[in-house]
Description:
The structure holds three protein chains of three kinds.
Chain A: E1 3-9, H1 15-21, E2 29-33, H2 35-38, H3 41-49, E3 56-60, H4 62-73, E4 79-83, H5 86-96, E5 100-105, E6 113-116, E7 119-121, H6 123-134, E8 138-141, E9 150-151, H7 152-157
Parallel strand pairs in A: 1-4, 1-5, 2-3, 2-4, 5-8
Antiparallel strand pairs in A: 6-7, 8-9
Helix pairs in contact in A: 4-5, 5-6
Chain B: H1 4-19, H2 29-40, H3 43-57, H4 71-85, H5 92-124, H6 126-130, H7 134-172, H8 178-201, H9 207-224
Chain C: H1 21-31, H2 45-56, H3 66-75, H4 86-98, H5 103-142, H6 147-176, H7 187-190, H8 192-216, H9 220-239, H10 246-263
Helix pairs in contact in C: 1-2, 2-3, 2-4, 4-5, 4-6, 5-6, 5-8, 8-9
Amino acid sequence: MTIVLNRIDDRLIHGQVVVGWGQPLDVKFIVLVDDAVAESDWEQELYRMGVPPEMEVRFHSAEGAVAHLDGYRTEARPGILVTGDIATMRYLVQHGGVRDVNIGGIHHRAGRTQHLRYVFLTPEEQAALRDLAAHGAVVTAQDVPAARAVPLEELLTVREDA
Amino acid sequence: MRELLPISLLGGILGLDVVTFPQSMISRPLVAGTVAGAFVGDATTGVLVGATLELIALATLPFGASRYPEWGSSAVVGGAIAAALHTGRAGALTIGVLAALATAWVSGWSLVKLRQWNAWLARRKRPALDAGARGTVIGLQLAGLTADFVRAALLTAIAYGLLFPVAHATVGVWSFGDHVSRAVVVTISGAVAAAAAWTIFHSARHARWYFAAGLAGGLLLLFAR
Amino acid sequence: MSVAAAPRAAPVPSPAPRLSPWTWVTIFTRMLAVQGSWNYETLIGNGIGFCVEPALRALPGGVHGDAFKAAMVRESTYFNAHPYLAAVAVGALARAELSGVPAERIERFRIALCGPLGSVGDQLVWAGWLPFCSLVSLVAFGLGARPLVVVLTFLALYNAGHLALRAWGLHVGWTRGLGVASALGNPVFRRGPAHVARAAAAAAGFAIPLTAARVVDGSASLLALVLGSLGVVAVLLVRLHGRVEGWKLSLVLIALFALISVAR
């Protein structure tokens, strides 16, 4: 097994990740890549509390994660990699060889427009997603396993009223 | 159709429980189906529909923004239809469960629409929210609660009003026997429940042995009776 | 990449102000409607503001003061958590606001709390306590209990846990304030979901054949056929790794069966 899901989700570790994906895929570890959380002990403690004791959480900054990604890909157990934003994932695609990107949740903020129930993007974020694809990553949006995986081009075309 | 108004109000209250208030799970199919059956005068049929739907509902994990069926009003529709048709008639249980599932499809969609409406309302009130107006925060909450009740009650009324005549006609030309019909429905719902139980619980250490022990106990009890 | 906008040191609890019993009753009652205006932009953010509001009235200047209005704006923005464990956030945020914790620290704490409260609640309640109570009630059903007994078994058992969790959350959030992370290390949250999962797995093994038997109400051979077929279909569903929604599959298969029954 390897990292079975590379997810962008601004909630980082939460129910959809731990239970929604974690249980059917039998996930044993989560790699949380976020520069701010990597420097904050109390936030790491909070996120550790959010997973079952038998599930491991490893924290890295974007730069720090690159050195470990090959190791995670050869792990015998399945794992999930989570970033809180597109920029961090773009760094991992460019420098860490990430090839499949799942958009699991980018929520409303001023300047973002809604594309799916759980995806709101600024024009700059749309461009960043296209850049991921240009670097060879297959980008889809899918909140939970039973939902349809929406391809990037469709995601960027569709507009929903919130 | 005298029962349409009370059934709709019941659907409104139990539909409200799913997400907005008070989430005490009076909206679970086991409860909603039974209470709806009792409203129509046949709680026994209601609990049969409720239990069958409860097996299916075990697979539904209502995570935040994900889309899922709204079981409260849909189980009311299914329980009431099956109870009104009477359990002794072949196909009544099957049709009740089918009506509930069809309603659940629409009710899940209606929840999405309600959430979009809540967002639209909040956007309109943005200047007041940005000024810290408590009345606006409270007003949005009350508007959402009211809209959800109206949504669920209307959905129940429309689904029951439309589906009951269809169900009545369908049961009239139902060709399979009662036991076979029930067997098919419970095979499907039981399989969904067993798969859900595995998916949800298998990662807990030794859970499969607990399941096996429970299964052995259940089967022993069945064949001892 | 994300930017660290606030101090990263561990939050320190400050002395707790006092709130009247009536305020607590109001907050608890409002907690039952925390998802009342759930939407895809702020999720339960407005609900958090709605629940914290009675406590914020104690800020200097009351409901017309600048402190109250600024806190209402902060507390009504985007938030996401399990609705029962949102009580932890409501208690902790009320405490932080009344203790005069700097706004940027409250905002950072609010963001950090979302994921863990959602994750812990989903594991313990949606994927644990709820299916467990549901399966225990199905066992009662399968054993031939009357409808009222089945319903009351479920509601009493489930709501004992539900209401206790909300009350505990509010209490622990208020007493620990921004240091509430340690409360999530409570064995109920760390080990509880696994224990509940094992109990629920046993209940599932018990409940499914018993429920099938009561619903079918037919011969032993028909029941054996049902249980055998059920097992085969369940294995196929498991192998799909959650990619098919059970209720949709049920809808399609039962609709097909109904069509065949009517058409033949």
